[in-house]
Every structure is written in structure tokens, then in C-alpha cells.
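Worked problem 6 (solution included).
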Amino acid sequence: MATDPDNPPEGILAELEQMGFHNTYKQSYIHKDKGKVLDLHFQKDGTDLFKGWKTEENEANMAAIEALFSKAGITITPRVMSLAEAYA
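Solution. The predicted structure is:
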């Protein structure tokens, strides 16, 4: 998630934590358009191989994420990462 470092969405971040998502990466930087950005990565372990999500977990977690962000007017578009991206 990328957000304004001076005004992070505290409610959304708290709800993500309550849903079992843990912040694994946090870094501020200046975007090429000169705006400040806070880059946040979250992870929630599943019960499948290598802590992945089983189909039922994926459906439930994605529905919860979509519901949370839709309350803020944000549409979620999932993207599957390659192994190289995931472990870079």
C-alpha cells in the first residue's frame, strides 16, 4: 500500500491488523512527481504450503480486504507476484 506519510489511513491500518495482516515493510520516499509516499507491505499467513492461503482462505481474505477498502472508495485489483518479486 502506498499512502501519504503525513496522513496515513489509521482506521484502515488498524482494521488490517485486526484482520490478521501484519506490516512487514515500511519506507518513506519522494516520488518522481515530488510527492511524499509511505510504502507499506502487509502479510497474513495461511495454512497451505509455505504459509500460503488455501482457496477458502483466499476467498475469505480477499472479500474482507475488498469490503474494508470499498468503505474508503478504493477498488482492489489483485496482482499475482512472481517468486522473484516475492523474495526480492
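Discussion: The longest strand covers residues 22-30.
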